[in-house]
Design a protein that fits this description.
The protein is mostly helical. The chain is 72% helix and 0% strand. The longest helix is centred in the N-terminal third of the chain and has 36 residues. The chain starts with 13 loop residues before the first helix and ends in a 22-residue tail after the last helix.
């Protein structure tokens, strides 16, 4: 059985595969026991009765969930694009040869990377009196952009030093070396960390409900607070959680798809070489 490499991990060897199989069997048994225990508790508390699930058939509740999901995806899309752009700019600053620019970028990255996301969101929302969506996007962008800046910088440094030196020896400028040599090779190493950070950004959009942004979790909380039976949050969690998990899995699938596409369509293709023939006279001789 052949194991394909993916964007998220390297191909394991024979010993590692046997060890992973053992870990997988043990983990499956533990997870199956845990799932059985959770199902027992859910059935014991009558969580699967029709009375507790019929409200989700109402058109108003479905529209509320879809609107919340759309708001979540909107905040995630804006924060992802801005975080990638901010991370690229800060990474360029940290890789700059100008000391002042490098210090400013380092201070920015270290400050916002250490600052809790919720604090930044509340500061923008309360102190600067910004609307919920821009406040949420600003907090997510500042934090995730600072983390992605370190991811980009580390990915560029992970490329073999000789690659850049060879490019400089050919007379290429630093911008050309970065865009044509270092960054294309670093993308493969950076992709898992980039996708992981985007998953963090997707999950952190749920913090928007704390500043009254009507995202997916806010919609679920609003539905649960208006249901008139015991433990109303459990059916809501059983509906909301799989959707969050599915979106995160889609991001991982997208990373794998990008990696496979890159392997199938490489930018550098083999060039035709003329067949060897009789050589001419050495230089300087006739």
């Amino acid at each position: 059985m052949t194991v394909e490499s993916t964007a998220l991990y390297d191909v394991p060897g024979p010993s590692a595969r046997r060890r992973h199989l053992l870990y997988g069997v043990a983990s499956t048994v533990v997870l199956a026991a845990l799932a059985g225990w959770i199902l027992y508790l859910l059935f014991d508390t009558d969580q699967f009765t029709s009375a507790k699930w019929s409200p989700f058939l109402y058109e108003g509740i479905q529209e509320l969930l879809l609107r919340g999901l759309g708001n979540t995806l909107k905040a995630f899309a804006c924060a992802s694009v801005l975080s990638l752009a901010l991370g690229a700019v800060l990474a360029c600053g940290r890789l700059s040869e100008h000391r002042v620019l490098r210090w400013i970028s380092t201070l920015f990255v270290e400050f916002f990377r250490a600052m809790p996301v919720l604090v930044m969101i509340f500061f923008v929302f309360v102190a600067l009196k910004v609307q919920p969506l821009p406040a949420l996007v600003a907090g997510l962008t500042l934090y995730n952009g600072s983390v992605l800046a370190e991811v980009f910088r580390t990915g560029v440094h992970a490329v073999a030093r000789g690659q850049g030196e060879a490019a400089y020896a050919l007379g290429m400028r630093k911008t050309q070396v970065m865009t044509h040599v270092l960054v294309p090779q670093a993308v493969r190493a950076m992709l898992p960390a980039i996708i992981s950070q985007l998953v963090v950004a997707l999950k952190d959009t749920s913090l928007g409900f704390l500043i009254t942004y009507e995202e997916f979790l806010h919609a679920g909380k609003l539905i649960a607070s208006n249901l008139d039976y015991d433990l109303p949050f459990i059916p809501v969690v059983l509906v909301v959680s799989p959707i969050y998990i599915g979106m995160c899995m889609l991001l991982s699938w997208f990373a794998t798809w990008v990696a496979r596409r890159e392997r199938r369509d490489p930018k550098a293709k083999a060039a035709d070489v003329a067949p060897a023939g009789p050589g001419g006279p050495p230089p300087g001789r006739r």
